[in-house]
């Protein structure tokens, strides 16, 4: 699908629909007159096939306890195999209501209280919240920038893993907010490090369908033909890809049978989160018939990225923009044009934009903003004009 058709057919007004991103502005930012480009969901309806499948299911009218049909596994496994070469097996798979919920559950069964868990900052802030809420020790390794590109600092990781006896690493692949799609070599290096240091890896692959650049996505499951699988739990969901977050359905993939038993035992104590009926109906339809929709969405995001990058860097050559290899989240360094500690006030109060501020992702993010590109070109144009105007007035 081309991007004009996509926007015309799928763009939707979300204000006054109880959308956190639009109707939760006051609660988060203390103002409701901001243009929201924060929460990672989009202003687009799900694919038509998804809506039709849900309507059909709703019209049936009875919502008693339900099972996951064989067709669900077929649709999801075919999607993963045909697009990424990932071989999945039904017995590896468990369902959750969301990736963050599953992350918490997995950390609970993989580690004990006070055990150390590592993240690579700047990173999606619920990782830190989940680790700390579970009374685990948070160990931070900052990504480093080499020639303007974020890379993992493996030496720093090794040293901190040993110094803190880290038990688990939470990997974000692709990486929110810096937009990296890790290469096979990078993934192999970090998985090998974790194997040597006896550190389990939780790979959050929720953004894996949102590949914007040329580098293909490779799952941690596929590295060296599955060599690291025994050490690995993978989390993913159709929610970012198809804008289904509120439908509460996600995947936990545990190839190692011993780890899986431990997961099952732990989840039994919680009386098992198992996804949701309508979430599964939606996901099955999306995996079966959503590819063309996704191609259109990716074109919109790419065009939005190009627009923002061109306009901002033309107006202010000192603004640095990370390449968007994956995700629909743009990571922008404003520290070349404005003091780091003035970014929040300027963006919120002068430009009237609600974005994710860089320091939410860790101290390394101070001076950055994360802009959500999963919206209409019209919103993006408004946001860029407002940001440029505010920065110019500041400099005048
Ligand atoms: C890396 C990452 N993991 C998880 C989530 C949220 O997943 P869920 O809504 O399934 O908890 C997000 C949402 O932005 C994300 O960026």
TrEMBL record:
Cofactor(s) it depends on: pyridoxal 5'-phosphate
EC identifiers of the protein: 4.4.1.13
One Pfam match: Aminotran_1_2
Source superkingdom: Bacteria
Keywords, in A-Z order: Aminotransferase, Lyase, Pyridoxal phosphate, Transferase
Record carries keyword Lyase: yes
A GO term, aspect molecular function: cysteine-S-conjugate beta-lyase activity
Alphabetical list of SUPFAM superfamilies matching this protein: PLP-dependent transferases
Stretches assigned to the Aminotransferase class I/classII large domain: 63-387
UniProt-listed NCBIfam families: C_S_lyase_PatB
Family: Belongs to the class-II pyridoxal-phosphate-dependent aminotransferase family. MalY/PatB cystathionine beta-lyase subfamily.
Name of the protein in question: cysteine-S-conjugate beta-lyase
Native organism: Ligilactobacillus agilis DSM 20509
């Amino acid at each position: 699908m081309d991007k004009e058709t996509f926007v015309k057919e799928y763009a939707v007004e979300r204000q006054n629909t109880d959308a956190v991103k639009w109707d939760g502005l006051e609660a988060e930012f203390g103002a409701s007159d901001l243009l929201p480009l924060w929460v990672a969901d989009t202003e687009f309806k799900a694919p038509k096939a998804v809506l039709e499948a849900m309507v059909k299911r709703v019209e049936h009218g009875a919502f008693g306890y339900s099972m996951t049909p064989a067709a669900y596994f077929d649709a999801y496994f075919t999607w993963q195999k045909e697009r990424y070469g990932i071989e999945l097996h039904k017995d590896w798979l468990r369902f959750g209501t969301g990736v963050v919920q599953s992350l918490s559950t997995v950390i609970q069964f993989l580690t004990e209280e006070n055990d150390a868990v590592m993240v690579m900052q700047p990173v999606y802030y619920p990782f830190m919240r989940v680790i700390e809420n579970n009374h685990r020790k948070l160990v931070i390794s900052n990504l480093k920038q080499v020639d303007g590109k974020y890379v993992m600092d493996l030496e720093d990781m090794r040293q901190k893993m040993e110094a803190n006896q880290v038990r688990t690493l939470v990997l974000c692949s692709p990486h929110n907010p810096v937009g990296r799609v890790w290469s096979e070599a990078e993934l192999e290096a970090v998985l090998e490090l974790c194997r040597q240091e006896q550190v389990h890896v939780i790979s959050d692959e929720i953004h894996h369908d949102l590949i914007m650049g040329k580098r293909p996505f490779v799952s941690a499951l596929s590295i060296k033909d599955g060599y690291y699988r025994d050490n690995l739990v993978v989390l993913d969901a159709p929610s970012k890809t198809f804008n289904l977050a509120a439908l509460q359905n996600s995947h936990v993939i545990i190839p190692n049978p011993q780890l899986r038993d431990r997961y099952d035992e732990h989840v039994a104590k919680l009386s098992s989160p198992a996804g949701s009926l309508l979430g599964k109906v939606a996901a099955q339809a999306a995996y079966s018939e959503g590819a063309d929709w996704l191609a259109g969405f990716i074109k919109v995001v790419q065009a939005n990225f190009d627009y923002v990058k061109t306009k901002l860097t033309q107006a202010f050559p000192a603004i640095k923009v990370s390449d968007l290899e994956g995700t629909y989240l743009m990571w922008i360094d404003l520290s070349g044009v404005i003091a780091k500690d003035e970014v929040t006030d300027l963006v919120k109060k002068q430009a009237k934009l609600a974005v994710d501020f860089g320091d939410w992702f860790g101290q390394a993010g101070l001076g950055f903003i994360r802009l959500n590109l999963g919206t209409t070109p019209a919103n993006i144009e408004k946001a860029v004009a407002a940001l440029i105007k505010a920065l110019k007035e500041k400099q005048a």
